[in-house]
Amino acid sequence: MTQVIDQYATWYEATxxxxxxxxxxxxxxxADVCVVGGGLAGLTTxxxxxxxxxxxxxxxxxxxxxxxxxxxxxxxSNGFALGMDDVVKKVGIDAAxxxxxxxxxxxxxxxxxxxSGDASxxxxxxxxxxxxxxxxxxxxxYGANLQRDYSEDLQHLSVQETxxxxxxxxxxxxxxxxxxxxxxxxRYCLLIAAKARAAGAQIxxxxxxxxxxxIGSEFLVKTDSWQVTARHVVHCxxxxxxxxxxxxxxxxxxxxxxxxxxxPLQQTSINTAAAISDTRRxxxxxxxxxxGRILWGGRISTKINRxxxxxxxxxxxxxxxxxxxxxxxxxxAWAGLMxxxxxxxxxxxxxAEGQWFGTAFGGHGLNTTAMAGLILARAIAExxxxxxRFVPFAPQWAFGQLGRLGVQxxxxxxxxxxxxxxxxxxxxx
Length: 429
Ligand SMILES: Cc1cc2nc3c(=O)[nH]c(=O)nc-3n(C[C@H](O)[C@H](O)[C@H](O)COP(=O)(O)OP(=O)(O)OC[C@H]3O[C@@H](n4cnc5c(N)ncnc54)[C@H](O)[C@@H]3O)c2cc1C
What we know:
Elements: H1 11-14, E1 28-36, H2 40-51, E2 56-59, E3 75-76, H3 84-91, H4 93-115, E4 122-130, H5 138-150, E5 155-157, H6 159-165, E6 174-183, H7 185-198, E7 202-204, E8 211-215, E9 218-222, E10 227-235, H8 246-249, E11 253-262, E12 275-278, E13 285-288, E14 294-301, H9 307-321, E15 330-340, E16 347-350, E17 356-359, H10 365-382, H11 400-426
The protein binds flavin-adenine dinucleotide (FAD).
């Protein structure tokens, strides 16, 4: 069943212009490809297939980008939700380099589509990742490894350099990635949808897919009353609607994370236009947005809290880091659902029946959904086999409800470990 999350409460919805809601599917259609899900994975796949001359129908259960794609932190950077060290452990350095290069293609894709579409979607350059305790040079070494193994463009900033930009005693050293950037994600989704329509795609909102059946060499994709027949089907439903394609759906765990946006502020605590996050196992991510507002994200859970309760908690996190902010009013607060596989890598591939899937991008989906869209479109339209790079990260059952409890438990454990690291610091250990 599709889950509806406080759809219009985001700052992004308040500052973007949706077209009038597209009509639901109300005909029997035939297409080359039917894409299920109108988040960035589905939209990018749809655009890239349309650009390659295929007839594409996209079916979205609610409004396009009403899921994570239109309500996220907006950071665009290379890599995956799974750290590259862990990718190397699984596949070795050569395959890890190839995967990292694909993730960079995703970053560059977003940059290029914005540049050729609407430059105002890009809201700032750079990404700072800071440590909140003295990690004995660990972050510096991590950065050096990224430079050595993946030619990643980055600078190491000392404690003093970090605190000039982030006026908080909580922060120590940081890494600065000048080529990362941050965007208005909803406007970006709407841009990709508009480009897809211009390239010939048909996009239907309020058209939840109920099931898919293979008939001969074609797929029958059914909503409540109507259907699309297509040679290919691509499942991009992330953490909701996971019953439609069980092979990938049962491998995805829904994980909620939260965002708050302050009133416009005049402040001197955050002195950088870059996006910022910390290295805690469940850390904060935030940035300055229009009119001096702070967009602050953080926390994870497997259950979505009510936003009113949420606003105070997010404010608490923000002010604990920057007491000089005083008591900023929170104008917007919302939740979003990410999809995670057990191994934290995206699920991209094709099942035994021939159905394609691109899902489970976790908290690192802006570059990787673009990457997946390119990979899937090239596979379907051109027979390209780059998707096989993800075979080592095939769908594995995520243990259903037990998996959700596991995620919640490990988050609490992460919080305890993070607090322990920081309290060691403050007690001088
Ligand atoms: C609060 C938050 C902050 C984040 N911050 C960042 C960040 O700063 N940087 C970053 O890289 N990533 C971030 N992410 C992650 C990123 O947003 C996601 O990984 C990415 O948007 C996933 O895209 P998607 O297309 O797979 O899923 P979604 O955007 O969730 O789209 C899936 C779509 O499928 C539709 N659907 C479901 N079932 C059906 C059905 N039966 N029929 C038709 N349609 C269906 C849904 O309605 C939905 O629109 C964040 C996520 C959240 C929630």
